[in-house]
Design brief:
185 residues
């Protein structure tokens, strides 16, 4: 399969200051809680075809933030991410399909030492040269997982029925990558 327009071969570096990795989950059955990770590293290795390309991401679980200090402490604790025992989550792509702007990225997601195959619905946002001469590519992607499948089973029953934390978690990624430097002779 052909590469998206503007992507060149080589390893593109992750630009954390123009990227965001986050998730949302239903809370008490009536609202959604959102959180982001502030310490993420990734690379996009572009091969000669889409099939020869790979995305690898590592997320430090202790970098989770939701804007609520008490919740953040609980989520980082043993009931959820258990950051002491599982300091990282990883994603390694295994296949890519699609054309133009719309793609499916299949890969192995590891949370709490449990690895499952997931499919991200992705949008290739294009390639542009910034005012400083760097070539950048943007990708937006999302998927929904069952947190229980990754050992995130803590919950509390609600008096009116149901549970405090939903099982479905939507993961969203907006990633910017910078092209490898072009060597001049």
């Amino acid at each position: 399969m052909a590469l998206p327009s503007g992507l060149t071969t080589g390893t593109w570096s992750f630009d954390p200051s123009h990227s965001e990795v986050g998730f949302s989950v239903r809370h008490a059955g009536i609202s959604k809680v959102r959180g982001t990770f502030t310490d993420v590293d990734a690379s996009l290795t572009v091969g000669s075809t889409l099939e020869d390309s790979t995305i690898i991401a590592t997320i430090k679980t202790a970098s989770f933030t939701s804007g609520d200090e008490n919740r953040d402490g609980h989520v980082k604790g043993a009931d959820f991410f258990d950051v002491e025992q599982f300091p990282e989550m990883t994603f390694i792509s295994t296949s890519h399909e699609g054309t133009g702007e719309t793609y499916s990225i299949t890969g192995n997601l590891t949370i709490r030492g449990i690895t499952k195959s997931v499919v991200l619905d992705a949008e290739f946002n294009g390639v542009a040269v910034d005012p400083f001469g760097a070539t950048r590519a943007g990708i937006s992607a999302s998927t929904t997982i069952s947190r229980k499948e990754f050992g995130l089973t803590w919950n509390a029953a609600l008096e009116a029925g149901g549970v405090l934390v939903g099982d479905k978690v939507t993961i969203s990624v907006d990633a910017a990558f910078v092209a490898p430097a072009v060597e001049t002779a």
